[in-house]
Amino acid sequence: MAGCADGIPTASDPGLIPIDAETFVVELPFEAFASGFRVDGGYGSAVDLVAAALARSDEGGDESRPLIRWGALPAAVMVPQADGSASVQDSTWTVVGGELILRVDSARFTGGERFEIEARRVVEAFDVRTAGWTMAVDTLGDRRSWSAPGGGALELLGSVPWTPGDGDSLVVALDSAMATRLGNRDASSRGVLIRTTTDGAFLRLFDARLRLQVRPSSRPDTVVVVQPSGVEISFIHSGDPVLEPGAMAAGGAPAFRTSFRMDLPEQVPATGPVCGAEASCLIDLTADRLVFAGLVLTTAPSTSSLYQPADTISLELRPVLAPDLLPRAPLGVPVQTQPRRVPPSAFAGAAGTRVEVPLTRYLRDLIREPLPGQDPIPNTVSLLAGTEPSGLGIASFAGPGREGAPRLRLILTRSDGVSLP
User: Fold this and answer.
1) Could you tell me the pTM of the whole model?
2) How far apart are the first and last CA of the chain?
């Protein structure tokens, strides 16, 4: 009633309801709130991406090469008749030429205004989903290496220049010899590898079509176009990405994840008015005092320009539901309502950009004592890209013990309640 004597409770007068409260900020080093740091890789496959990465590092040492496989050719072609009557089927033909049509992203690219692109036929059998730089097949019970890293024995189909002004399609003409090899009907698959010889190039390959020109035996004076069924596009990149020792990583193809256990202290150090006459003090960390919590990360430069993010990366922090099963443990829903989106510029040059991932709701639940019969909140979390795989680029951050190591930023409020006269 004292507060309502001369006004209304919704008035803007700060002294109307006299509450003594102090708000302060605390930043905890990684060792003060976390343990069990680990980085795991191998999540997802490059074949799951919408676009394949065609890239070559600035130094020319690292590459990403799209790997393409088409299905079987049709059993017969429809041949139009000279007299205009209905077309007839013909299952015997001779390949006389063809073309490979590649569709690239002409709006988003890096590395210059002109690119040299090669197409090569893959001679060796491979599995498009599990193939890597050194392995042609890497499935359970079947592991086969390429005869040479990067796709094994390769036959040059053709080389073409491309500039964005040419549009989003480029065509590699195939002579009769190469078209015949790709049109071998006894082959279980038709494989082609694409590479660029331009240093610093980064392009996205969306689609690839193989069109073969054939002469049917019933009408050798007629050319009919034949296309194989289905296409699978993946990409292989040179070796495994080399991360800085102790660095945090998220994203890539296959993707990386960084996991650690949250070991929150019962008290946090504070300074200022909240400590009264003391220069510093310890304040109990309770859920009702927590206004905001954020995991503060510092971006680290990529070890190779090949793995520097070319697109915005969406980061998520998810609780690990069964830590004992890491690296293949199930994850819970993200601790934040929206992914933390980080632009590629944050990883350019020397990096050093500060990125904060909110986790207020999760931390409040973690601090609270679980209700009777309620399972405790998982205290292990994983930092990962919102989509796995998200692309060739890897989000890299300074790890524990390094300059710019992760910190936990807390905004806390302490109140002694309502003071009445």
Assistant:
1) 0.81
2) 11
Residue 62 one-letter amino acid? D
Distance CA 125, CA 61 (A): 26
- Same domain as 405, residue 265: yes
For residues 55 and 64, the answer to whether their CB atoms sit within 8 Å is yes
Residue 1 half-sphere exposure toward CB, CA atoms < 13 A = 0
Residue 361 is classified by DSSP as H
Contact 294, 412 (CB under 8 A): no
Asked, for residue 402, whether it belongs to a domain, the answer is: yes
- Pairwise CA distance, residues 7 & 400, whole Å: 54
CB 62 within 8 A of CB 56: yes
Single-letter code of the amino acid located at 324: D
Return the sign of the alpha-carbon dihedral for residues 282, 288, 289, 293. positive
Q: Based on the fold, state whether residues 139 and 207 are members of the same structural domain.
A: yes
- Give me the sign of the Cα torsion angle 29, 32, 33, 35: positive
- The residue to which tokens 């690219």 are assigned: 109
Beta-carbon neighbour count of residue 337 at 10 Å? 8
pLDDT single digits (tens) 24-78: 899 999 999 999 999 999 898 888 888 999 999 887 678 999 999 998 888 888 8
> Do 176 and 292 lie in a common domain?
no
